[in-house]
Automatic annotation (TrEMBL), chains A, B:
Domain Pyrroline-5-carboxylate reductase catalytic N-terminal: residue ranges: 2-98
Domain of life: Bacteria
Gene3D superfamilies: NAD(P)-binding Rossmann-like Domain (3.40.50.720)
UniProtKB keywords: Oxidoreductase
Pfam family, one: F420_oxidored
Organism name: Micromonospora humi
Coiled-coil stretches: none
Protein name from the UniProt record: Pyrroline-5-carboxylate reductase catalytic N-terminal domain-containing protein
Length: 217, 217
């Protein structure tokens, strides 16, 4: 599959690296290709020779599946740059969380309660099939879940399109996830985005990001 | 221990019944004793002869530990009725969630993000030692956790007073809980109250309330 990963941070690199390892054709999208190349990107890219770098629009144009791995604040601008036409009809795996650090730590959510970033993105790009997933755990666990309790923990998918959720679930399963729970339509992204406050407190309390929740039933 | 349980609903009865079973002296507080007695209370009370019913203030006056098992909307009025003097110095286990059903299902939270019901209660009763706990699972699992995965799932305590959290943790452990996680001060109640949206969606999806999260680490 041709996968475009928008975002060059920890999450973007984790998804891109793992998807390439699994045989997908991966391009990473960035706002400014030259600025990214001039940064710390070079070292990572040298270790991942099959992965190309492009502007958001070029990265998205030829993709079968697009991953939003930008910051919450940067998500709508990045997707605007990717372009509604380029995104039309495609599955968009949205991993971003609308964290607001402007008042310090712990951050609050800039979209919350009766709305979510996932819904905002779906409304802004109605022809795109948005699936919220993987926003509830740390990057390394998103792509290598078996390192924790042999994968015995849960992740969630939220979205309006059943086929798109199936495609994302297959990708997550290929990463090693064993318990992908379909919560329902895109409004259920409120629930997973609102997990962030307790996630951040547990992170502080446990002293490691290598944890996740399991829905015991 | 003398325990006052404010609230006669499902949560109040579950906590009261279990605490009495474990040998505590239990009184249940209600807004209107006569109205409660005239309702469906009688049948339950007949099965729990050791448990007495009283107004919120009378119930609270002699208690060592007070449990807020009222609805989110009713919590501050019930605690006002219990009285700041009666609550002074005491441990208050706050189980309520600030759910707002005025726009239908799923409810939103009436306090959220940069505040929580737990914090509001702590601010309103500064001499009371508020501990938020048990608001993240169904009543029957609060008090009989071993019925699910032999108790291999997590609950949380949030509060400013270490001794109060210890007292609540002991009570939870006596109920059968095996993994009580101290999240930190009362502001961490935001995180557990914000679990409600995903809890409600999982409830719909799984078709049972007999589930809980486990923090896998």
């Amino acid at each position: 599959m041709r996968i475009a990963v928008l975002g060059t941070g920890m999450v973007g690199r984790a998804i891109a690296g793992r998807a390439a390892e699994l045989g997908h054709q991966v391009v990473v999208g960035t706002r400014d290709v030259d600025a990214t190349r001039d940064g710390e990107w070079g070292e990572w890219a040298a270790d991942h020779p099959g992965i190309t770098l492009a502007g958001h629009a070029d990265a998205t144009a030829e993709a079968d599946l697009v991953v939003n791995a930008t910051n919450g604040d940067g998500s709508l601008p990045a997707l605007d740059a990717a372009g509604a036409e380029n995104l039309a009809g495609k599955v968009l795996l949205d991993i971003a969380n609308p964290l607001d650090f402007s008042q310090g730590f712990p951050p609050t959510l800039s979209v919350v309660n009766d709305d979510s970033l996932g819904e905002r993105i779906q409304r802004a790009f109605p022809r795109t099939r948005v699936v919220k997933a993987l926003n509830t755990l740390t990057a390394d666990l998103m792509v290598h879940p078996r390192q924790l309790a042999d994968g015995d923990h849960s992740v969630f998918v939220s979205g309006d399109d059943a086929d798109a959720k199936r495609a994302v679930t297959e990708l997550l399963t290929s990463f090693g996830h064993t318990d992908v729970i379909d919560l329902g339509d895109i409004t259920t992204a409120r629930g997973t985005e609102m997990l962030l406050p307790i996630w951040l407190r547990l992170y502080g309390r446990l002293g490691t990001a290598l944890f996740n929740v399991k829905v015991v039933r």
